[in-house]
Amino acid sequence: MSPLLLAAIVFLAALILFWQARRRQSSLGLPAGRIIYADMHNWGKVEQPLYDSASGLTGKPDYLVEQHGQLIPVEVKSSRVKDAPYDAHIFQLAAYCLLVQRCLGKRPAYGILHYPERTFAIDYTPALEKRLLEMIEEMRLQERHKQVDRSHESPQRCSSCGYRSVCDQRLRL
């Protein structure tokens, strides 16, 4: 076999592998760029969590993608959504943005929430950061109380709670 033919075959194989990797990355809701962190057990060694002592936050985004010098946290969800991401998921993603900023020194402009049928880019604005920090402070205040009332904003969540049988604040559905 000639060296030129061998080089062409290797080049073609590399193109096919690159195309398959990009297709897989896209199917996971990941933007183009280099994956620098992955908390997916099937990929191998699990990354260390990010930790910020000032806020007391610890977390592991599913992925961190570096794109043009910017870090983008990506959270992959298995639940389905209709029109918009859940608020809890937005705040989880905002917490990852805060952790990236404080631990890695780069403030993400946005993060990505990937659901099975939709993907959302969530801007990490100063307003979202402020709401997140207020929520963290409220949680820290609640930790000091002996009794904390349950939230019943979502009756469906209450009905499927694993503590429902022993909860004295469960909803009567």
Tell me what the structure shows.
The chain has a five-stranded mixed β-sheet with strand order 1-4-5-6-7, covered by helices on one side. Strands 2-3 form a two-stranded antiparallel ribbon. The protein has helices at 3-27, 87-104, 126-143, 155-159; strands spanning 34-38, 50-52, 57-59, 63-67, 70-76, 110-114, 119-123. The N and C termini lie far apart (75 Å). Strand 2 (50-52) and strand 3 form a beta hairpin. It folds into two domains: 1-30; 31-146, Lambda Exonuclease, Chain A (Alpha-Beta Complex), CATH 3.90.320. 17% of the residues are buried. It is extended and about 80 Å long. With 173 residues, it is of the alpha+beta class.
Q: What is the CATH class name of the largest domain?
A: Alpha Beta
Percent in helix: 25-40%
Using the alpha-carbon principal axes, give the shape: extended
The CATH architecture term of the largest domain is: Alpha-Beta Complex
Q: How many domains would you count in the coordinates?
A: 2
Uncertain residue segments: none
Number of strands: 7
Q: What is the residue-averaged pLDDT?
A: 81
Number of helices: 4
Going by helix content, strand content and strand pairing, the class is: alpha+beta
String of helices and strands: HEEEEEHEEHH
